[in-house]
């Protein structure tokens, strides 16, 4: 009798593989066939037609799927074709003891099913994959989810579930194409590895954890019955979803009554805390808005925030947004709120023999990562710098007044250093002379610096929205404490008469 030594060895490997399967995994004939197919592929490089059929079933090589991170972008031109991506997909595969499948890249063809309705499908590009034991990890870059025409209502409900629930499970069904590195047999693509798995997705939970963290501007309209509030909220996203929603409007309420509209432009939420710039227009012609405004002068109050039928121009989102209902506590008189950092630092002054004073300062964003443009100091109000406490005991400790020439554009995370002329006193009285001498002497014993208090009320544009806003950057009003000013020997020129 003729026999093949390779065939005998291969049969032995397959037999030991099947017999060694752990008892915790339910195996069937097809599972054994799939195991044998891949063992045979590794030893012979062969992939017969019977193996193609074996792996195409819903519960075959892939047993379960977990999506630990997912990004969904709803700002696409076609609202029924959002994009998706993930940097962390984990698939648990059929156990083949002693063997790790050498899969190095995959692409996926997926149908999303929710409550028995097929919502849509997406195909991913080839992405790197790694396998350790029975676990495969991969990711996929931006892929379009095409919603089926008869599933638009179901998809809107799906978005609503993700928006309001702590967790929501969907079914993913489809197939995976895998590339395997087979050593001497080269690379082989195995297409059509079927799967069907229920996948829990941690949802947004109604975005109930919101905190009012800063009021950039609260401005009563001069020609209308409106109050305009530009604020920064912290919205906690408890899910593993990153969602880009575009411009979104929310109904603002007080004790259940409508008081205005709050808008978030280009809303994008990542997992965890998100500092969100909001624009609220209170309609103070409404009695509820009047009551709310009056109450804020006496105590902290909750402003309700909820979606409505036309919260977004994207019809795919509105059902989900309509279900969102939360609230944020605004502190009494907007007190106790803090900037994310000082709006400025590293101050220094130079004074020429002709008493021309130039100041250099570095500006940075105090608005939790949002950029701004400093248009000019509003010289209709006091914009002045004084020496701090403990430097001079004079009643007049003024060093300079700002001019309208201070301009800067600052990114959300960067800094901008600018130099500008300032106005110093033209005539010195004995009180100022004493104060300036005290400053000079203080600096000599304190490393060339003196503490200063800044009164600066600039006009700024936040986040490139084109709206000029009047804000308070004073050290006292924002409880920033004294800021150091570096002076040199030339500061003595301020005493020249």
Name the descriptors.
alpha+beta; single chain; 16-stranded mixed β-sheet; DUF3712; 7 helices; 7-stranded mixed β-sheet; Immunoglobulin-like; 3 domains; disordered N terminus; elongated; signal; Tag1; 497 residues; 27 strands
Structure description:
The chain starts with a helix and ends in an 11-residue tail after the last strand. Helix 4 (152-164) packs across helix 6 (315-322). It is built from 7 helices and 27 strands. The chain has 3 domains: 5-202, no CATH class; 205-334, Immunoglobulin-like, CATH 2.60.40; 344-495, Immunoglobulin-like (Sandwich), CATH 2.60.40. 17% of the residues lie in helices and 45% in strands. The strands form 3 sheets. The chain has a 16-stranded mixed beta sheet that branches. A 7-stranded mixed beta sheet has the order 21-20-24-27-17-18-23. Strands 22-19-25-26 form a 4-stranded antiparallel beta sheet, with no helix packed on it. The protein has helices at residues 5-19, 29-44, 49-55, 152-164, 287-296, 315-322, 430-444; strands at 62-73, 83-93, 103-114, 117-123, 127-132, 135-144, 146-147, 167-181, 187-202, 210-220, 226-237, 241-254, 257-269, 272-283, 301-306, 325-330, 344-351, 357-364, 372-377, 384-387, 398-401, 408-410, 415-422, 449-455, 458-462, 468-470, 483-486. It has 497 residues and is an alpha+beta fold.
């Amino acid at each position: 009798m003729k026999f093949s030594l390779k065939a005998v060895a291969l049969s032995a490997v397959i037999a030991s593989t099947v017999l060694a399967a752990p008892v915790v995994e339910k195996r069937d004939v097809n599972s054994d066939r799939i195991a044998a197919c891949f063992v045979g592929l590794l030893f012979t490089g062969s992939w017969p037609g019977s193996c193609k059929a074996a792996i195409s079933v819903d519960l075959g090589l892939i047993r379960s799927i977990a999506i630990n991170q997912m990004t969904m972008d709803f700002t696409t031109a076609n609202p029924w074709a959002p994009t998706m991506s993930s940097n962390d997909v984990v698939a648990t595969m059929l156990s083949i003891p002693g063997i790790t499948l050498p899969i190095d890249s995959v692409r996926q063809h997926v149908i999303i099913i929710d409550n028995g309705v097929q919502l849509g499908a997406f195909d991913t590009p080839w992405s790197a994959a790694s396998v350790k034991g029975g676990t495969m990890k991969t990711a996929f870059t931006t892929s379009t989810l095409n919603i089926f025409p008869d599933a638009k209502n179901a998809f809107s409900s799906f978005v609503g579930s993700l928006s309001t629930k702590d967790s929501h499970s969907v079914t993913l069904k489809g197939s995976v194409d895998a590339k395997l590195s087979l050593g001497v047999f080269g690379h082989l693509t195995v297409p059509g590895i079927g799967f069907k798995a229920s996948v829990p997705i941690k949802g947004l939970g109604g975005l109930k954890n919101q905190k009012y963290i800063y009021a950039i501007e609260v401005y009563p309209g001069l020609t209308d019955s409106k109050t305009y509030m530009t604020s920064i909220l912290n919205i906690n996203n408890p899910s593993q979803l990153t969602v880009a929603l575009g411009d979104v409007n929310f109904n603002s309420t007080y004790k259940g009554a409508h008081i205005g509209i709050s808008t978030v432009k280009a809303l994008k939420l990542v997992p965890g805390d998100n500092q969100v710039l909001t624009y609220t227009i209170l309609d103070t012609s409404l009695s509820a808005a009047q009551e709310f405004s009056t109450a804020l002068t006496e105590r902290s109050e909750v402003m309700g925030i909820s979606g409505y039928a036309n919260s977004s121009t994207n019809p795919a989102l509105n059902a989900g947004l309509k279900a969102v209902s939360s609230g944020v506590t605004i502190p009494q008189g907007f007190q106790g709120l803090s900037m994310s950092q000082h709006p400025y630092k590293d101050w220094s002054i130079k004074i020429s023999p002709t008493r021309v004073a130039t100041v250099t300062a570095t500006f940075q964003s105090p608005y939790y990562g949002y950029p701004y443009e400093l248009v000019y100091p509003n010289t209709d109000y006091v914009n002045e710098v004084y020496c701090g406490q403990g430097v001079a005991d004079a009643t007049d400790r003024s060093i300079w007044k700002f001019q309208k020439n201070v301009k800067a554009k600052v990114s959300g995370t960067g800094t901008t250093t600018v130099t500008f002329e300032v106005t110093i006193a033209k005539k010195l009285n004995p009180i100022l002379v004493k104060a300036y001498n005290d400053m000079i002497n203080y600096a000599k014993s304190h490393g060339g610096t003196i503490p200063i208090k800044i009164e600066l009320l600039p006009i700024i544009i936040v986040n490139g929205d084109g709206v000029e806003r009047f804000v308070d950057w004073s050290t006292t009003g924002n409880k920033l404490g004294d800021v150091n000013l570096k002076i040199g020997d030339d500061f003595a020129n301020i005493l020249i008469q």
